[in-house]
């Protein structure tokens, strides 16, 4: 170890002692003196020179110090409060912990930029998201290019203005062309929800760019030639409905009306023809009373059948009125009524044909309208004919009294005026007046046989006109008159 000694005149000395090293270190001294206040410094390579020495920190309080041409420098753009490092700009890689202002060290609370932020890694147009490890990442499965937001891999979603190839396209155009398309392009989708300016949206179903069905705010309709199947994938008609099994108790279709009589739920059948004889028909329920079913027909070609003429009316009891409302028949009767006439039965084995006559719910005989009434009954081989002897003037529903005027028994006997069989032909007339029992003639009532009851004498009188006056040509037993005497041939 060597040393350099500077001996002072007063006896002291300044010693420069070299380090104890095996190698040689050279220092090159400056060629001139420095300025006032400068110190001898090295450039790190053995060359010595004179440099100014900063006596304190640069800038203002909290400003971070940095090397500024060999001196301390500071700027208001980079400050340190003791807890928060603040910078108005940043360039270059950012590594380590930034913004440790909360317990979650390394999270940014606020990141503000005045220009574009560029990320060197990731996928072009890839949407950044937190993955399962909460790492901010991006990929090709979710992209946004500034126009379209896409999920192109397997059942993609495309929200944009004109791109194609997605399974879902949501297009927010102008008011005159707003639409949502599900399909293969922005204009020809399988399902197209669209609208024009000032109209309600339409739901349109397409096949090969051709519209096949449309749902509007008021209707659902299909294109020409399209069959609709409900319960079947092979509809054979414009509407083909397959009913569930009978055990399900579910009908093929239900036509339901609002509550109240007159709010009929029905089905209309239109002729779709301009022929003057074409008519539209309407089937409806609960029109005039609860439980009824009415068939109506339009009054002219193309007219609305709901306001047409009722040609058939069924009551809830199963009675049918043709052109009229059926009367209130007894509960066990089934009737077909047309105007003042009716065919009906009850107790399963009685068949009736009546005119101006029905049997009400209390099993009483009633008039359908004013006038006389007749009724024919067929029951267990017997034919009975009834008449009312008094003309009704009290309107529909008035009580009537029917008389069994004639009967043809199951044995072939004819009973007139009686229900008791006295002979094959039994004719009974009431007492109290002259009555013709039998009147047989050819052209008038006075040229044949008359059998009458004379009430005054209580005798039966027989009058025979136009009998032969001789037996010539007569068979044995024939009657003839000879000189005013009744003879037998």
Uncertain segments are: 99-107
- Helix tally equals 0
Mean pLDDT: 80
**Given the helix and strand composition, which structural class is it?**
mainly beta
Beta-strand percentage range: 25-35%
Biggest sheet details: 13 strands, mixed
Quaternary structure state of the chains depicted: single chain
Helix content: under 10%
Distance between the terminal alpha carbons, to the nearest Å? 199 Å
Count of individual beta strands: 41
How large is the radius of gyration?
Answer: 60 Å
The coarse silhouette is: rod-shaped
Please characterize this protein's 3D structure.
The N and C termini lie far apart (199 Å). This protein has no helices and 41 strands. It has a 13-stranded mixed sheet, with no helix packed on it. It has a nine-stranded mixed sheet with strand order 11-12-13-14-15-16-17-18-19, with no helix packed on it. It has a three-stranded antiparallel sheet with strand order 37-38-39, with no helix packed on it. The chain is rod-shaped, with a radius of gyration of 60 Å. With 489 residues, it is mainly β. About 2% of the residues have low confidence. Among the domains are: 49 residues, no CATH class; 43 residues, no CATH class; 75 residues, no CATH class; 54 residues, no CATH class.
């Amino acid at each position: 170890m060597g040393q350099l000694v500077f001996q002072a005149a007063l006896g002291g000395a300044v010693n420069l002692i070299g380090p104890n090293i095996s190698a040689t270190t050279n220092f090159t001294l400056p060629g001139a003196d420095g300025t006032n206040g400068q110190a001898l410094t090295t450039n790190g390579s053995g060359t010595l020179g004179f440099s100014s020495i900063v006596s304190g920190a640069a800038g203002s309080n909290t400003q971070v110090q940095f090397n500024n041409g060999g001196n301390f420098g500071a700027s208001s753009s980079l400050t340190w409060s003791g807890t928060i490092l603040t910078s108005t700009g940043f360039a270059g890689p950012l590594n380590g912990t930034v913004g440790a202002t909360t317990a979650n060290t390394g999270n940014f609370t606020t990141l503000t930029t005045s220009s574009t932020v560029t990320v060197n890694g990731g996928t072009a147009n890839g949407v950044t998201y937190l993955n399962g490890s909460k790492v901010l990442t991006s990929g090709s499965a979710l992209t946004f290019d500034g126009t379209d937001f896409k999920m192109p891999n397997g059942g993609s979603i495309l929200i944009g203005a004109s791109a194609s190839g997605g399974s879902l396209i949501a297009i927010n155009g102008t008011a005159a062309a707003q639409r949502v398309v599900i399909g293969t392009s922005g204009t020809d989708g399988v399902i197209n929800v669209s609208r024009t300016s000032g109209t309600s949206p339409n739901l349109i179903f397409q096949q090969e760019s051709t519209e096949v069905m449309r749902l509007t705010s008021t209707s659902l309709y299909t294109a020409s030639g399209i069959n609709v199947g409900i319960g079947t994938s092979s509809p054979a008609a414009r509407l083909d409905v397959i009913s569930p099994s009978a055990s399900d108790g579910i009908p093929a279709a239900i036509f339901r009306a609002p509550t109240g009589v007159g709010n009929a739920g029905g089905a209309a059948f239109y002729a779709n023809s301009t022929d003057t004889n074409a008519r539209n028909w309407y089937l409806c329920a609960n029109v005039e009373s609860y439980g009824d079913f009415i068939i109506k027909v339009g009054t002219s070609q193309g007219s609305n059948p709901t306001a047409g003429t009722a040609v058939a009316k069924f009551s809830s009891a199963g009675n049918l009125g043709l052109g009229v409302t059926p009367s209130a028949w007894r509960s066990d009767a089934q009737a077909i009524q047309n105007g003042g006439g009716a065919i009906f039965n009850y107790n399963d084995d009685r068949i009736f044909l009546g005119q101006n006559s029905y049997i009400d719910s209390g099993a009483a005989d009633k008039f359908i309208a004013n006038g006389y009434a007749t009724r024919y009954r067929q029951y267990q081989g017997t034919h009975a004919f009834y008449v009312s002897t008094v003309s009704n003037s009290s309107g529909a529903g008035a009580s009537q009294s029917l008389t069994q005027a004639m009967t043809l028994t199951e044995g072939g006997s004819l009973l007139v005026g009686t229900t008791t069989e006295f002979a094959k032909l039994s004719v009974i007339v009431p007492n109290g007046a002259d009555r013709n029992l039998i009147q047989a003639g050819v052209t008038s009532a006075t040229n044949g046989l008359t059998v009458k009851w004379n009430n005054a004498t209580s005798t039966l009188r027989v009058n025979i006109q136009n009998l032969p006056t001789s037996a010539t040509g007569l068979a044995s037993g024939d009657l003839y008159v000879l000189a005013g005497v009744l003879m037998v041939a």
